[in-house]
Amino acid sequence: DGLGYNTAILVAPDGTLAQRTRKTHIPVTEGYYEDDWFRPGPAGDDAFPLVTVDEARFGLPTCWDQWF
Predict the structure, then answer these.
(1) What would the DSSP string read from start to end of 42-65?
(2) Domain limits of the chain?
(3) DSSP bridge pairs for 9
(4) Where is the signal peptide (predicted)?
């Protein structure tokens, strides 16, 4: 379908990819056109895993996902 994912990434201090999450909730209301460009990422208990980098814990909900 040619659609991509709206993806948040976390890069560790050593330059490696520490975590990646894909936006799960794509808004489909007036004024939002994200569904023209992006598909939803995976849903479920592991959609927003926590990762620890230098003793700090991170979660990466993207934009609209924070409300769910």
Answers:
(1) --STTSS--EEETTEEE----GGG
(2) 7-62
(3) 20
(4) none
Q: Which two tokens stand for residue 65?
A: 């996902």
Q: How many residues does the chain have?
A: 68
- pLDDT at residue 37 in the model: 94
Look up residue 14 and give its amino acid.
Answer: D
Pair of tokens at residue 36? 């023209």
* AA letter at 65: D
The encoded tokens of residue 12 equal 């560790």
What is the biggest distance separating any 2 CA atoms in the chain, rounded to whole angstroms? 42
The set of residues, in sequence order, having a beta carbon less than 8 Å from that of 9 and lying 6+ positions away, is 17, 19, 20, 60
- Global pTM value: 0.76
